[in-house]
Amino acid sequence: MEVLGIKTALIGIRDDLLSILERGMEASGIELQDGDILVVSESVIATWEGRVVALDSVVPGEKAIALAARYGKEPQEMELILRESDHIVGGIPGVVLTLKDGFLYPNAGVDRSNAPPGSIVLLPADSRKSAAMIREYFASRSGKNIAVIIGDSRTHPLRLGCVGVALACDGILPVEDARGQHDLFGRELKITRKAVADNLVSAGQIVMGEGDEGIPAVVIRDAPVEVVPGGTCQEMPTIPPQECMYIGALRAGPHPYLGGHDDLIQAAAAAMKTAYAPYSGFSVGAALLAESGQVYAAGNVENASSGADICAERAALSRALAAGETGFRALAVVADTREPIAPCGICRQNLIEFGEGIEIVMANTRGGACVATVGELLPHPFTVASMKARAEDEEKISDGVTSTPLPGK
Ligand code: THU
C-alpha cells in the first residue's frame, strides 16, 4: 500500500477545491488508478464550503457566556460551539465534549487551527455531499473507479495523540464486519469490526500532518480494501450511547450491588418494621455504618403535618450524630418497592455533608439492590467546600460557630 501526498497552494474561502486538488495531483505526478482512495482533510472541505467565521461577528448569548467562564473559553467561540452541537456533555478547562449527529466531538469541531487570524473554522456542513461530489468529479475526469474519504482527527479516551477518523466516505464501506472470521487459533471473532475508513485516514495523516505541511489530501494506492460503486453515499455508522463501552462504563452509578453489606441491608429491613408511617403507609428502613463499626438504624417518622416527616435515612443519621459519630462508611435503605428505593434529595444533601464517598446501598424487600456513592447521587453538590471559596467565612466556620469539626477539614 502506498500513501501519496498531494501538495497544494493555500486554499482560501470558497476557492475551487476540485481544480486546486487536480493541479496538486499533477504537480505531485499522481495519475489516478482504479482502486485509489482519495483522502481529503475536513478543514479544506469546510473552507471550500465557506464555513469560516470571523470571531468578532459573533454575539455570544447568556448561556455561551456562562459556559465560556466555566470552561475557560472565549464567549464567541463558545457561542459557535453551542450553535454547532446537539448537546454539551461536559468539559475540562479549554475544551468541551459535545454530541453532534450521534458522534462525540471536542468543541463541536469548531477549530482555530489552520484558520486565518481572527477567524475560526466550523466542521463541513455536509461531508457526505462533499465526498460524493469529489468522487464523482475525479472519477469522471480520470475514468477510474475511485473512493473518497473526508478525514478528521480525534483522541481516544486516556490516550495521548490524535488518530484519524472519517467524517464521510463514498466508494468504500466505512466499517468491515469481521465477525464470523477466525483468529490464529481458529476461535471465531465475536465483536470485531474494522474501522476501515478511520484506519485509512490515520494512514493518510502520517503523510498529511496536521500543521503547515501544505498537504491537505493524499491518494492511498493498493490498499487491501474494495472500492465499491460510488453514489451510494455511506453514512458513518454509530452505536447508541448505552451500547458504547466508554459511555456505559464511565456513566455515574448506580451500579449493581455485588455484596459486602448484607448485614447492613438486614439491619435496614429490621428498622423498616419500626417505621412510624400511619399517613402514607409507606415504611422505609435505613441503617448507617459509622467508621467506628457501629450501625445506627431507624425507620421513617411521619407527622400529621407532613412537612415535618423525617425520612429513615435522616432518622438513622440523627441517631448516629447523637451518639457522637461524624465519619461514615455506608448506608443501606430498604422499602417494599418494585425497584430498589433511592434516598430523596434532602437526605442526599444531609449525607453528603459527611463525605461524597459514603456508599449508599439502595435495596428493596425482594432482594433487589444497587449501589452508588452519595457523590454519584448528588453530583456538583453544595457543601462546606463551596463555602471555603470565601476565606473570611472559613475563619468564622472553624472559629467556633460549630463545635463539631467539619468533615474534610
Ligand atoms: N421516605 C424515606 O424514609 N426515605 C426515602 O428515601 C424516601 C421517602 C419516607 C418519607 C415519608 O415518610 C414516606 O417515605 C413517604 O414519602
Describe the structure.
By secondary structure, the chain is α+β, with helices and mostly antiparallel strands. It folds into two domains: 2-51 and 124-250, 2-Layer Sandwich (60s Ribosomal Protein L30, Chain: A); 255-377, Cytidine Deaminase, domain 2 (3-Layer(aba) Sandwich), CATH 3.40.140.10. Helix content is 30%, strand content 22%. The chain is built from 13 helices and 18 strands. The strands form five sheets. A six-stranded mixed beta sheet has the order 13-18-17-16-14-15. β16 (328-335), α10 (345-352) and β17 (359-364) form a beta-alpha-beta unit. The longest helix has 16 residues, at 127-142.
Short overview:
This protein has 409 residues and is of the alpha+beta class.
Give the helix/strand layout.
Elements (H helix, E strand, L loop, with lengths): L1 E5 L10 H11 L9 E5 H7 L3 E3 L7 H10 L3 H10 L2 E6 L2 E6 L2 E4 L12 E3 L5 H16 L4 E9 L6 E9 L5 E2 L15 E2 L1 H13 L8 E5 L23 H6 L4 E2 L5 H11 L11 E7 L4 E5 L12 H11 L5 E8 L9 H8 L6 E6 L4 E5 H4 L6 H4 L3 H11 L8
Parallel strand pairs: 2-8, 16-17
Antiparallel strand pairs: 1-12, 2-12, 3-7, 4-5, 5-6, 8-9, 10-11, 13-18, 14-15, 14-16, 17-18
The structure holds tetrahydrodeoxyuridine.
The site of tetrahydrodeoxyuridine (THU) has 15 residues, from helix 9.
